[in-house]
Design goal:
By secondary structure, the protein is of the alpha+beta class. 50% of the residues lie in helices and 13% in strands. The strands form four sheets. It has a five-stranded mixed beta sheet with strand order 2-3-5-4-6. β10 and β11 form a beta hairpin.
C-alpha cells in the first residue's frame, strides 16, 4: 500500500515538472511537433522513472560487542485495551477506486457515443481516409482514419478547409495522443495537473493541424473565418480530434505567429537538470552494509552503560514485531523498515528483510530466508557511558553466547496490540539539506469579455431599393437600376461609426494594462527576493550537500541562465499580450468589413434572382 502511494506521488511530481516546463518555456514556441513528443515523453517518464531505482551500497565495519553482563531494561507495562482505529490507507484506496471506476465508466460511455455516431453510416473511401457525411449537428472530427462531418452546414470552401485540417489529425495519428491522455486522466483523476496536461496536449494537436492545413490552403483568412464559424457548434465527441476547440483565439494567434528561432530549441534541455535532481533525491537508495558479522567479543564491559537485545524468531507475531519497532524508534531513535516478510502454512516466518537507520543516516540491513523457518535474529543496541549509541545484528548462536547476570529477567517484550507503525525512513541524502526557494508565479494579463460592437455603428448603413413587382414595367425597372447604382456608390463610401466603440475598448485595455504593470512591478520585486534567497540557498547547499561539487556548480550556473531566460520570456509575454489585444481590435474591424461584404453579396444575389 505504501509503495503504491509513493509511486503515485512520484508520478504526479514528474507530471507537474513536465507541465511546468512546457507552460513556462515551450507553449509560446512554434515547435508544435517537438512539443507533441515532449508532452508524450513526460507521460511515459512519469510511469517508468519511479521504477528505476539505483541502489548504492556502502560497506562498513561491524560494531563488535563483548561478552558482558546483560541488564534488560524493559519493564512490564499495562497492556493497551483494544480500540477502534480507522485505516486511512484503506479509506484512501477506496476513494481512489471510486474515482477510477467513475472515470472509467465515463470513458466507456464516450466510446459508446462514438460508436452510435459511426454505426450504420455510409463510408466513402478515398486514399487512406474514410469519409462519413452525417446529418447530426456535431462539430467535424476525426478518429484514426475516419473523418466525420455534416456537409449541409458548410459551404464548399469551408468544407475544404475542415477536411484538410482533419486529414492532418488522421495522417499523424493524433487519436493515439488523445486516447493516451484520457487513460492518464482515468489513472490520475485526483491530480489537477493531469487535466491541464491533457488540455495542453489537445491544444498543441490543434496547433499542428492548423499549421499543416494552412500550408495547403491558399486563403489563410478564409480558414480563420471557418474557425470562427465552427465555434457555434458546441456538441463534440469526447474521444476524437474535433475541429472545434474553445481556445479559438489562441489558435488564430499561433496561426499568424512568426516561426520561433532555432536557438529556442535549447529550452527543451532545461528539463534535464530537473530530472537529474529528481533521480539524485528520490531514485538513489544508499545502504550501509556490514562487511561481516564479527563475534560478540572484545568490548570492555566497564565502558558500557546498557545493552538491549531485541529478538525476532520464526514464531514472532506481527504484533510483536510492531512493538519492537515502536520501542526502537521511541527509545533509541532507530527507524526500522521490515520488508519481504513471508510466512508458511504454520504462520512461521520463512523470509524477512530488516533495515535499521539511525539519526545520522547510518543504515544496516539483514536479510534471511529458510523454508523451515528463519533462525533467530538479534538487534543489539549498545549505549556507552559517553552517550554514544551503537547498533548491530547478531545471529542465533551469538545471542546464546551473551552472558546474562540476571537470570530472573526476561529479554522478551510484552506483546502490545494496536501500536502505530513508525514513520517511513527519510530519503537517503536528504538529511540536513536546505530546501530550495520557490520562484514567484508570473502575472497574467487581465482577461474578460471585450465590449460589444454597438448596433448604432451600423445604423446608417444604406438600404437597398425595392425591386418593382412588375418586371415588364420598363419605367419602374429603369428607376430601380438607377437607385441600385446610387446604392452601390453609397455602400462603397459607407464607413461604420466606430469612434465610440474604439474609445471604450481603449479605456478597458488601459485599465488592464495599468493592473498588469503593477503586477509586473510586484513580480520583479519578488524575483529579486527569490534571486537573493537562491544565492543564499546555493551557499548553504555547497556547505551541507555532499554532491560532486563541480557538477553541482555546473547545474546551478545552468539554473541561473535558465532563470534569466525565464525573466526575458515573462517580459516578452507581456508584450505578446498587448500585441494580442491590438490584433483583436483589428479583428473586430475585419468582422465589420465582413458584414459589409456579406450585405453586398446579398444585394448581388437579389439582382441575379430578379434578372
Amino acid at each position: 500500500m505504501e509503495a503504491l502511494f509513493i509511486f503515485i506521488a512520484k508520478s504526479s511530481g514528474l507530471l507537474a515538472l513536465f507541465y511546468l516546463a512546457y507552460y513556462l518555456l515551450l507553449r509560446k514556441e512554434t515547435f508544435f511537433n517537438s512539443n507533441r513528443w515532449f508532452l508524450l515523453s513526460g507521460l511515459i517518464t512519469a510511469v517508468v522513472l519511479p521504477f528505476l531505482v539505483y541502489t548504492k551500497v556502502i560497506w562498513v565495519d561491524p560494531v563488535p560487542v563483548s561478552n558482558m553482563a546483560y541488564s534488560p531494561v524493559f519493564t512490564p507495562g499495562t497492556i493497551q485495551e483494544e480500540s477502534f482505529e480507522i485505516d486511512w490507507n484503506l479509506v484512501s484506496l477506496a476513494i481512489y477506486a471510486l474515482g477510477f471506476t467513475a472515470f472509467l465508466v465515463k470513458f466507456g460511455i464516450d466510446f459508446y457515443s462514438l460508436n452510435s455516431v459511426l454505426k450504420g453510416k455510409k463510408v466513402q473511401q478515398q486514399a487512406d481516409f474514410k469519409f462519413i457525411d452525417i446529418n447530426e449537428n456535431i462539430a467535424p472530427f476525426s478518429y484514426f482514419d475516419y473523418i466525420v462531418y455534416n456537409s449541409s452546414l458548410y459551404s464548399a470552401s469551408e468544407l475544404e478547409n475542415i477536411i484538410e485540417h482533419e486529414k492532418v489529425h488522421s495522417d499523424q495519428n493524433h487519436t493515439i495522443d488523445v486516447l493516451i491522455s484520457r487513460i492518464f486522466c482515468v489513472l490520475f483523476w485526483f491530480n489537477p495537473i493531469i487535466w491541464l496536461y491533457k488540455k495542453a496536449i489537445l491544444q498543441n494537436l490543434e496547433f499542428i493541424a492548423d499549421s499543416e492545413a494552412a500550408k495547403k490552403i491558399s486563403d489563410k483568412k478564409a480558414y480563420q473565418y471557418t474557425l470562427l464559424k465552427i465555434t457555434t457548434h458546441e456538441s463534440c465527441v469526447a474521444i476524437t480530434n474535433h475541429f472545434y476547440q474553445s481556445l479559438i483565439k489562441k489558435r488564430i494567434v499561433m496561426l499568424n505567429k512568426n516561426q520561433s528561432k532555432k536557438r529556442n530549441y535549447l529550452k527543451y534541455y532545461a528539463i534535464i537538470p530537473a530530472l537529474l535532481a529528481f533521480v539524485l533525491l528520490f531514485q538513489v537508495k544508499t545502504i550501509a552494509q556490514e562487511k561481516a558479522s564479527d563475534p560478540i567479543t572484545n568490548i570492555d564491559p566497564k565502558g558500557i552503560e546498557s545493552m538491549d537485545v531485541f529478538n525476532i524468531s520464526k514464531n514472532t507475531t506481527d504484533a510483536e514485531i510492531a512493538e519492537r519497532i515502536k520501542i526502537l524508534k521511541e527509545k533509541h531513535q532507530i527507524k526500522v523498515s521490515v520488508s519481504d516478510l513471508k510466512r508458511d502454512s504454520k504462520n512461521e516466518i520463512t523470509s524477512i528483510q530488516i533495515e535499521l537507520k539511525n539519526e545520522k543516516g547510518v543504515v544496516k540491513v539483514k536479510r534471511t530466508e529458510s523454508t523451515n523457518g528463519i533462525d533467530k535474529i538479534g538487534i543489539i543496541i549498545i549505549k556507552e557511558k559517553s552517550g554514544k549509541i551503537s547498533f548491530n545484528f547478531s545471529d542465533d548462536e551469538q545471542i546464546k553466547n551473551i552472558d546474562r547476570s540476571d537470570e530472573d529477567q526476561d529479554d522478551e517484550i510484552r506483546e502490545v496490540e494496536n501500536v502505530d507503525a513508525p514513520d517511513a525512513p527519510d530519503a537517503p541524502g536528504t538529511s540536513g539539506t536546505p530546501t530550495p526557494p520557490t520562484p514567484p508565479a508570473p502575472p497574467v494579463f487581465p482577461g474578460g469579455p471585450m465590449p460589444q460592437v454597438p448596433a448604432s455603428a451600423m445604423a446608417n448603413i444604406p438600404k437597398p431599393p425595392t425591386h418593382p413587382g412588375n418586371v415588364n414595367d420598363k419605367a419602374a425597372m429603369k428607376k430601380f437600376e438607377k437607385e441600385m447604382a446610387e446604392f452601390e456608390k453609397k455602400m462603397e463610401a459607407f464607413e461604420p461609426d466606430m469612434a465610440a466603440y474604439e474609445k471604450e475598448v481603449e479605456e478597458v485595455m488601459s485599465k488592464r494594462e495599468a493592473i498588469f504593470e503593477k503586477e509586473m512591478e510586484k513580480y520583479e520585486v519578488a524575483m529579486e527576493k527569490y534571486n537573493a534567497d537562491m544565492e543564499k540557498f546555493n551557499q548553504e547547499n555547497q556547505q551541507n550537500v555532499n554532491f560532486n561539487n563541480r557538477q553541482y556548480q555546473i547545474d546551478m550556473k545552468q539554473h541561473a541562465i535558465d532563470m534569466k531566460q525565464y525573466e526575458k520570456d515573462m517580459k516578452q509575454h507581456a508584450k505578446d499580450m498587448k500585441q494580442q489585444e491590438k490584433d483583436m481590435k483589428q479583428h473586430q474591424k475585419d468582422m465589420i468589413q465582413h458584414q459589409k461584404d456579406m450585405a453586398k453579396q446579398q444585394k448581388e444575389r437579389a439582382n441575379r434572382q430578379n434578372n
